[in-house]
Amino acid sequence: MKEKYDANVTIEGDWWIIDIPQVNYRTQATSLSEVDSMARSLIAGAKNIDERSFDLNVHFDLVWLDELVKLLDQVQALETKARAELDNAARSRRAVATTLRRDHNLSVADTATLLHVTPSRVYQLLTEARTKGPAPTGTGPSSSVAGAGFEPTTSGL
User: Fold this and answer.
1) At residue 137, what are phi and psi to the nearest 5 degrees?
2) In Å, how far are 5, 18, 50, 55, 117 from 2, measured between CA atoms?
3) What pLDDT does 135 receive?
């Protein structure tokens, strides 16, 4: 079984300080990517052993890091929710485009005008609707475009 060493890491100014209590020495690194190699080099030199002959447990003593990790978790949750909302909006837009063309016999040009997109985008939406399937129940358009949350404008037509 390999011997285990602890590397306790803190930050002082621009330097990452690495304390190794088992050898009672300290070293430093300019970036986090150097912590492992610097700690291993220090231990190997102090004990006169190979750098790969032991396990290294790196511990970060950074109070602010815990707060940032919590914040990052919140950000990731918001991004996940936003992606889901965008997916729902995209499904609804595909359903509206399909409804306008299929159920109301609107031309591609008229559908594009109502959706505020180009005719090319209407063709993309229709293709995506065929390949990705319909919107889930309750999220697609009703028989009325306005009922689906789209308010067509007539200004400039």
Assistant:
1) -55, 130
2) 10, 21, 12, 6, 64
3) 56
